[in-house]
Write a structure and sequence with these properties.
Length: 76
Amino acid sequence: MTAILVILLVLAMIFVVVSLVRGVIAFLQSYRADIDAGGEHQREMQLKQNRMMMNRIKFQALAIAIVAILLMLGHR
């Protein structure tokens, strides 16, 4: 059981990093001209940034829950 949880924890941590990197890349692709003009590309990048950061939060919560379960199993 512990091995499965550790594998899930590692996967969750990988997904956190991937979501963070994708969100930062979307942020970096937002050009100042698009921000000032409020173009369609800017709206798409903002939505992608928000989606990636929400995914990051979800995966972090999952990782924390797995760590909590591992700690509870370790106290038995």
